[in-house]
Amino acid sequence: MAIVLTIAGSDSVGGAGVEADLKAIASMGGHGEVALTAVTAQNTSRVLDIFPLPPEQVVAQIEAVVQDARPNAVKTGMLHSARTVRAISPLLSDLKAPLVIDPVLFAGVGTALHKEGLTAAFIDELFPLATVITPNKEEAETLSGMRITDENSRDIVGRKLLDMGPKAVLLKGGHLGGDMSIDTLYTKKGTLELASPRLDRKVHGAGCTLSSFIACGLAQGLDVREAAKGAKRRIFDSIAMSLPIGGGLECINPMATLYKESMRSAVLESVRSAVATIEEHMPPMYVPEVGMNLAYALPFPQGYNELCGVEGRLVRTGDRIGRAGEVRFGGSRHIARVVMAAMSADPASRCAMNVRFREETVEMLRNSGLSIGSFDRNNEPEMASSMEWGTTEAIKGSGHVPDVIFDRGGVGKEPMIRVLGRDPEQVLSKIKVLMK
Predict the structure, then answer these.
(1) Where does CATH 3.40.1190.20 sit in the chain?
(2) Where in the chain is the domain with CATH 3.40.225.10?
(3) Would you give the DSSP letter of residue 303?
(4) Domain 263-434 class?
(5) Cβ(238)–Cβ(21) below 8 Å
(6) How many whole angstroms separate alpha carbon 91 and alpha carbon 93?
(7) Model confidence over 150-163: pLDDT tens digits?
């Protein structure tokens, strides 16, 4: 088992600090140890008070842990004072374990979490020991003395921080703007950009959680690049599935990826059950020439391997419908694109299936009370994916995710009906008028 020591402050609302660290480490199968640096009185809206522990007590905690259960990696969070940094740096040097420094200077609500002299202590004492440091934009600007205004200035700051001694710098892009959240990893061997769609929310505890994911990856034997890649995927889940605990910022959900993975078997069984119903009750005349499929996504999917569908699609075989392959994750790309586009507008729209287009079928669905959207393939831009572009266009035209989206085809493109819902059971209920 990987053991990770977190040296950080306590967050009374449980969304950041050691509380977030321990959840993040546990979610990856690791064991978390703690050396507490401060007790904060805070909630999701503001920091009311900070009670720092004496540096001698922080040192005593580290020494007690190391004597009995030596960690495989260490991460630091809120250290608060230069005195604490100077007190712990000799111990961290002697440990020679991978070290992740999250140079915490400000809380997510904007309150300063440090005393004067802390930035200089980071640079002089800890950065030369660090495997990787993980500053956000504001922290990177404070540490480097430079503003980040564009990609060029970001790279200058990243390399300047790298020159301060750490083996790697992960400059977080959550505060940099743009449609994508791009974290940039700087090493002596070059740079690596880690991108994910930007989520329309600001959360409490993201920095703590990301650095803990990286530390646990390093403790498990990954190199910095692989640990950062894994952490990036996990932090996207953690932010996407954040928790509305109080009235301010939502709290990060470090367990999100673990919860998501635990849903795989239920999603798989739900698709299998729906496919069996389609095979038994759906007339084969509804199978399009390109085949039929049903795709169902895990929450906030990051790629096709997080959507379940039929490999090779459902096809017409004589007077019945049958599977061409197994039901599995990654089994659909065609209809998976529809789901991904729909979820961009409404994360609850996690399922879709396609049906052969006929005008009378559209009318049957409309008359059953379903909302209908459509798009014109003649307006489709070159190089665009019909599934993604068309779904997005129909949603824009409807002002919401409709129950049904259809098009009348185009040159070399078969007309199609797509039925959308929150899960396979709801999709099947919407097409019950088509069943035997």
Answers:
(1) 3-261
(2) 263-434
(3) S
(4) alpha beta
(5) no
(6) 5
(7) 889 999 999 999 99
